[in-house]
Amino acid sequence: MKKGVIFGTVAGVMLLALTGCGKEQVLSCILEQDQTGMHLAMEMNVTFRNGENKSLTMTTQVDLEEDYTDYVDTLAESFEDQYATYKENGMDVDVQTSDSSVTAILKADFNQISDEEKEELGFSPSDNDYDAVKETLESSGFTCK
Questions:
Q1: Is 60 strand, coil or helix?
Q2: Is 83 exposed, middle or buried (0-12, 13-18, 19+ CB in 10 A)?
Q3: Residue 1 lies in a domain
């Protein structure tokens, strides 16, 4: 009986190892900029499985100073226009507004988008491992952890 339990446990562990329960990592990077009348904060979370990027969530928030709050709707429309192509290609896009800010959230599943679309998002299909993506984002001004 004990041998059967041990054998079953070992077989279960081997089955999990062979069916792709690989290591998952999340790279979180932030870019913040202050410009006349606004503060921009962009956060990118890239999930990797077995060393290759699996998905991306990019959140961009623009907080407008009081003198510029009349431009919230214009800025929201600009984000909608900018992300329209991504939305048409099956990526999730959500643009939200408040009295003084606009938040745009883009979610992409790298298994569902083309290499061309990955490049438009700034991800080279040939250099899509954790270290390469981190280096690319940091060279673009992001701080990664």
A1: strand
A2: buried
A3: no
Backbone phi, psi, residue 12, to 5°: -65, -45
- Residues 23, 126, 132, 124: what is their CA dihedral angle, to the nearest 10 degrees? -110
Distance, in Å, from the CA atom of 101 to the CA atom of 91, rounded to the nearest integer, reads 23
Dihedral (C-alpha) 108, 110, 111, 116: value to the nearest 10 degrees? 110
Which residues form the domain of 41?
Answer: 23-144
Rounded-to-integer distance, Cα 68 and Cα 14, Å: 60
Residue 51, in any domain of the structure: yes
Q: What is the pLDDT of residues 9-65, one digit of tens each?
A: 333 333 333 334 568 999 999 999 999 999 999 999 999 998 888 999 999 999 999
Question: Which residues have C-beta within 8 Å of that of residue 117, sequence separation ≥ 6?
Answer: 86, 89, 91, 108
Q: Could you tell me if residue 125 is inside a domain? A: yes
pLDDT per residue over 54-102, tens digit each? 999 999 999 999 999 999 999 999 999 998 888 888 789 999 999 999 9
Q: Is residue 12 part of a domain?
A: no
In the chain, the number of structural domains is 1
- The two three-digit tokens of residue 60, written as one number: 């961009």
